[in-house]
Amino acid sequence: MKMLTEKEAENFLEKENFEVIKRIFVKNKDELKNVGEKINFPWVMKVSSKKISHKKKIGGVILNIKSLDEAQIAFEKISKIENFEQVIIQSLIKGEELIIGLKKTPEFSRVIMLGAGGSNVEEKKDVSFRVCPIKESDAEEMIKELKIYGEIEKKVNLELIRQNLLKISKLAEKNPNIQELDINPLIVNLNEAVIVDARISFE
Fold first, then answer.
1. Tens of pLDDT along 39-84?
2. C-alpha–C-alpha distance, residues 197 and 99, integer Å
């Protein structure tokens, strides 16, 4: 099994016409001053490493960085994390956090999942599943089955969530060797649905 790095996974999804957050990878503090020309403050800074998957739990995600001075302090902190390789700098986008997953299972072949996203997905236990391939009506039902549906339906563009679910289903058909895919979070508001973090493994 081959696990893609976050960088590889996001690049893969971008090539497949998914909306992925604007991001820059930085290996040392001196490179930070050039990032401001490409990404406006506030920033999100995250640790990036092949050996780290749960970034938030180890203090590897710092939000709302508003200046170069703050960015340098954040870089110093993150660079001390064990197995540090580089940081990812992204623009800060506001909205509801969702998770979309895809997994190959012995019983059902491909299963697609939608749920309330963020760092404590396991605790929220708010998810909906369907066997691939899915139709538009399946995507619609998945969204409405979420416990958070009533809270978010007026705050997000539901059509963009539907589109992302259908695109993931088609991606599974196009790439049968995908073992597992995890988009968490997909940040959705009234105007956009943007992938902020992704992991993919291939058989």
1. 999 999 999 988 887 788 899 999 999 999 999 999 999 999 999 9
2. 10
H or E, element range at 38: none
Among 91, 112, 138, where does a domain finish?
A: 91
| This prediction's pTM | 0.92
Tens-digit pLDDT profile for residues 187-198: 999 999 999 999
Could you tell me the two tokens for 79? 């660079």
Which tokens is 158 given? 């539901």
- Structural domains in the chain (count): 2
Please tell me whether residues 33 and 105 are part of one structural domain: no
What tokens does 137 get? 């009506």
Cα–Cα distances in Å, from 44 out to 58, 72, 148, 176, 195?
15, 12, 25, 33, 14
Strands (E), 77-177: 86-91, 96-105, 109-116, 127-131
Phi-psi region of 184 (alpha: psi -120 to 50; beta: other; left: phi over 0): beta
